[in-house]
Design goal:
Elements (H helix, E strand, L loop, with lengths): L8 E10 L10 E9 L3 E5 L6 H8 L7 E6 L2 E2 L5 H11 E4 L11 H11 L4 H14 L15 H14 L4 E5 L7 H17 L3 E5 L3 H4 L4 E6 L2 E2 L37
Parallel strand pairs: 3-8, 3-9, 6-7, 7-8
Antiparallel strand pairs: 1-2, 1-4, 4-5, 9-10
The structure holds adenosine-5'-diphosphate and magnesium ion (MG).
Magnesium ion (MG) binds next to helix 1.
Amino acid sequence: MNNNTYAQTQLVASHLTMNYGTPSAHPALSDVSLQLSAGESLAIMGPSGSGKTTLLHLLAGIMKPTGGDVLWNGNSYAKMSDAQRTKLRRSDFGFVFQSGQLLPELPAIENAALPLMLAGVAPAEAKRRAQEWLVSLGLQDLLNRRPGELSGGQAQRVAIARAMAIAPGVIFADEPTGALDQRTGMEVMQLLTRVAAQQSTTLIVVTHDARVASFCSRTVTMQDGRLGDAGLASASAGASVAEEPANGVFTAAPAGVQGKVSVR
Ligand SMILES: Nc1ncnc2c1ncn2[C@@H]1O[C@H](COP(=O)(O)OP(=O)(O)O)[C@@H](O)[C@H]1O
Ligand SMILES: [Mg+2]
């Protein structure tokens, strides 16, 4: 579905600083630089308030930094208009958030088809592609369920289908397991990393959970708005072995979530 089959520097953040304008001891983000290769999976870890979501939103072009810039395949966000950045987001990026991201009045299939329609794909074709993803994520019997009739894990699968359906270059996931019990969270992470790897889609996961981070091939840690370690050292794309998280407490995907995943 996309052609990012070889490693290349795809996303470059240089010297990002974010100051929300509120009086505080330090800015939300200070001088963060980071490079990602196509197809790489990166976990951004760190405690609450350390700047993870701010960094994710800047990388995705959702908001503008106070300083610094982001390059997407060599194209500077700072040189784009707001409309151009919005268009880029809709065509090239998929998003999975903690919860509450699906429109409650729409059935799963229409929720999953929505970004395609926003990107200009005709409704019938958008629904066809959305259905393909929902089926491949085990939701074939739930296509017409509304979000209120889905479990948390099922709703996250719909969100993954919605993100993947546009064949994005990057999936941005902010605490994608934050509202799930541990087992369901690991299942969702397994699915997310599996489909991203299958499509060579770059994956950026924000989490404060080392077990979640261990599904990614590289981990960086935020602390007080700064990047703690190895931000500039780009790991080889597609590496399957998780780096040890900074706190060293967890290094492997838990047993029991490796096989076929049931819908919970
Ligand atoms: N919209 C905002 N306006 C003002 N301050 C904000 C806003 N969003 C985040 N912050 C502040 O920026 C810092 C980093 O927040 P955030 O990026 O959400 O951290 P994390 O995702 O790691 O919890 C925190 O001090 C937070 O209070
Ligand atoms: Mg956050």
